[in-house]
């Protein structure tokens, strides 16, 4: 959702940067899973609860920020000319990375997949290659999403309905954040 939104609103370069950030988050979580952080979170439930709480708060912040951006009055239709001011906005790579890291369930996903596919005796080069493969695969997918959604025709169409889409995306991010906060407070199984 983030990569799509950034690609539509800010163009191809920002979309690629956010795709790289999301992919880096995937690589980080896959590497952490490969080296046993999933086990740490199973044993230290309070740590996973803290990660979920912080992740939930960050997603709520992103949702509110997206909503607030729709309340600004635009005096003219957005165009390529307004893209020149976009570098002053938040760094798309960092936003992609933090958004991905705000989802602690990703570590549960990778821990479960790697538990099936790898053994405790898996060597370090294989683990490194696996983490890099996770990055490359994610980056290719999100790159395709970016290239598709950042085309001029699609961006012009998006600009016509951008407030609705951004408000829906902001609402979803906020709701996902609230869900993470509630599950963190309830002490629900952190890896479920």
Explain what you see.
It is a single chain. The chain is an all-alpha fold and 192 residues long. It has one domain. It contains 8 helices and no strands. The protein has helices at 2-10, 12-34, 37-43, 45-69, 92-101, 105-117, 124-149, 152-186. Helix 1 runs antiparallel to helix 2, helix 1 (2-10) packs across helix 7 and helix 4 packs antiparallel against helix 8 (152-186). It is flat and about 55 Å long. The model is unreliable at 75-88 (pLDDT under 50).
List the helices and strands and how they pair.
Elements: H1 2-10, H2 12-34, H3 37-43, H4 45-69, H5 92-101, H6 105-117, H7 124-149, H8 152-186
Helix pairs in contact: 1-2, 1-7, 1-8, 2-5, 2-6, 2-7, 3-4, 4-8
Short structural summary:
The chain is built from eight helices and no strands. It has helices at residues 2-10, 12-34, 37-43, 45-69, 92-101, 105-117, 124-149, 152-186. It is flat.
Main beta-sheet strand count, sense and barrel state: none
The helix/strand order is HHHHHHHH
- Briefly note the structural class of the backbone: mainly alpha
Instruction: Estimate the global geometry from the Cα principal axes.
Output: flat
Helicity range: over 70%
Distance between the termini: 22 Å
Query: What share of the residues does DSSP label as strand, in percent?
Result: under 5%
How many helical elements?
A: 8
Mean pLDDT: 79
**How big is the Rg?**
18 Å
The tally of domains stands at: 1
Uncertain runs are 75-88
């Amino acid at each position: 959702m983030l990569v799509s939104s950034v690609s539509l609103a800010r163009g191809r370069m920002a979309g690629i940067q956010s795709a790289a950030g999301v992919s880096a988050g995937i690589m980080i979580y896959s590497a952490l899973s490969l080296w046993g952080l999933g086990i740490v979170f199973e044993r230290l439930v309070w740590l996973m609860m803290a990660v979920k709480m912080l992740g939930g708060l960050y997603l709520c912040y992103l949702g509110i920020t997206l909503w607030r951006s729709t309340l600004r009055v635009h005096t003219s239709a957005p165009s390529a000319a307004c893209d020149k001011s976009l570098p002053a906005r938040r760094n798309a790579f960092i936003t992609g990375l933090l958004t991905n890291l705000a989802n602690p369930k990703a570590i549960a996903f990778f821990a479960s997949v790697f538990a099936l596919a790898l053994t405790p005796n898996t060597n370090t080069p294989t683990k490194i290659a696996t983490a890099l493969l996770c990055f490359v695969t994610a980056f290719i997918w999100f790159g395709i999403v970016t290239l598709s959604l950042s085309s001029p025709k699609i961006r012009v169409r998006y600009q016509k309905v951008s407030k609705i889409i951004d408000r829906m995306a902001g609402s979803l991010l906020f709701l996902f954040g609230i869900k993470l906060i509630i599950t963190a407070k309830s002490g629900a199984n952190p890896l479920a």
